[in-house]
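Sharing a chain and its predicted structure for anyone who wants a worked example. Both blocks are below, sequence first, C-alpha cells second.
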Amino acid sequence: MINLFHVYLQMGLLSHAEGLIPLLPAGYAPQAIALLSLAQENFTEAINQYTALLETTKSLLLATNLSLAYLYSANVQSAIQVLEPMLKEQGKERAVLPHAVYNLCTMYEIRDDSARRRKEEIMESVVGGYGDVCGKGQFKLDSLR
C-alpha cells in the first residue's frame, strides 16, 4: 500500500493517494498525510505536519521535506535552518543524503552571494563521513578540493 501511495503521488493522482491513507499502516499515516499536503501545495499544513513529526522522530527525510515546504512558501532562511544542522550530524539515512545536500546547496544559491563558501563548509562536513555516497554534483561545486 505504501508503494502504491507513492506511485499515485508520482503520477499526480492525488485523490487516489488520499484514498489510500486509511489503508496505510498507522505508523506511516502521519508521514503520508504530510507528504500529501506537500504534493497538494498546502505548504502551511505541510510545515505544521512535518514540524510535529520531527518533534518525535529525528529524520533527515522529514527535515528535507520540511525544508522544501519552507522553500516553496518563499521562506528560504527557515528552510536552511531546518536542513543545515541535520546534514552536519552523522546519521543512517544515506539514501536521502545526496538529495538533501543538493537541495541545501540550491537554497544557499537562492539565499545569498556567499553560497560557494557555505557549500564548501557542507562539503567538508559531509564528505568526511560519507565520501563514498556524495559526489561533487550534489554539492553544485565546479571542483572538489
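Comments welcome. Residues 7 and 32 are 12 Å apart (CA to CA).
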